[in-house]
Design goal:
The protein is α/β, with parallel strands linked by helices. The protein folds into 3 domains: about 70 residues, no CATH class; about 200 residues, UDP-N-acetylmuramoyl-L-alanine:D-glutamate ligase; about 140 residues, Mur ligase, C-terminal domain (Protein-Tyrosine Phosphatase, Chain A), CATH 3.90.190. It has 14 helices and 20 strands. Strands 5-4-6-3-9-10-11 form a 7-stranded mixed sheet, sandwiched between helices. A 6-stranded mixed sheet has the order 15-16-20-17-18-19, with helices on both faces. It has a 3-stranded antiparallel sheet with strand order 12-13-14, with no helix packed on it. α3 links the parallel β1 and β2. The longest helix is centred in the middle third of the chain and has 16 residues. The radius of gyration is 22 Å and the shape is globular. About 45% of the residues are buried.
Amino acid sequence: MHNLALALKIKGFDVSGSDDEIFEPSKTRLADAGLLPPVMGWFPDKITGDIDAVILGMHARNNNPELIRARKLGLKVFSYPEYLFEQTKEKIRAVVGGSHGKTTITSMVMHVLKTCGKKFDYMVGSQIEGFDTMVGLTNDASIAVFEGDEYLTSPIDLRPKFHLYKANIGLVTGIAWDHVNVFPTFEGYIDQFRIFAEGIESGGTLIYCTEDKVLCEMVESSSIKAKKIGYRTHSYHTQGEKWALETAYGTVALKIFGSHNMQNIAGAKEICIQLGVSELEFYDAISSFGGAAKRLQLLGKDKLVSYYLDFAHSPSKVLATMDAVRTQFPKHNFVAVLELHTFSSLSAGFLSNYNGTMNDADKAIVFFNPDAVRHKNLPELTADEVFKNFGRDDLVVLSDSEKIQNAIFQQYSSKTVVLLMSSGSFGGLNLPLLVAKSLSE
């Protein structure tokens, strides 16, 4: 939401907002732009008849006093994805969906389009090098590229966000059950991608990964009117720690690694071709792509240890990220640390989906914060429940932030890669600062 506010101010809108709590870095970024509310809370008097539109965030429940006032005045009220569509409804919208890889593919497409000098609007779920905000809206771009999240639009609109973007070009990376709090069955979860694919605008295109069995079955059994284009992992080779694409134009050296990223590149290429980028232009541009924040992001290294941070939290993401690191560093001591932070991962009935996902590591550590469990109103989770579901007799399970910090930043006596996986913060740890401090000692 704060990125949307910044993007609208850059576009020339008068923007104001309310919230009951604002965290960093949003707080500082809003303050620097002159958009930080002077007082936290909800104030109906701020909602007046001369406001063009009200945009709701995830806190906007039906009894929100500002929402009640907006409705009473008959103002236009949009959810976040509804407003993004409103701003781009005359543009070609490319929407990247799927249970994994959507942030990376969206970032790749954005990087290529920018490198090729094409104007475009965008929304992506991570900070990308070369972009000041995670949302960009213009008056003159004819293209919009959106990361398509399948989670719910808002507490008062229970449709998945990516249904509302009305894609002209839709991509689905794969389907692996997630968000069990709102999709209690796998079949119900799959249906959201079916609705997305069948809802692609007339004359549009569905791009999908043919290496995902569940996705292929969904595509084959659906009434999809869009043109269908399948993709699979791009041909590549490795030389030491360097990865390169094998193309009709020769070898293309890359800055990123992992077979899952070679698959992501193949999907991104198909979108870019649909948007008017040639294959040669794509390969020239993708060679300089350095990755998205928190997607195998190198936090720091010295001669002995390297620390990588990844957003992986669902079983399919953990498995892909683990494989990438093990393949990249086959002779290193591999320490994998996973925080269970989402509703799904903290649900005892879902934990069995993680069985075997951390087997590639020499040492595997799983952390969960009991406060996060209580905050999500979930039943108490025990270390024993976590331990028995991962399928490793030597798994270390921790639930104290001081202990997890000590476990991560210990003394390593051989070449080691430490992979930190979480959609949270390991109980409030400032990982970049701690990594820098550890490497300087």
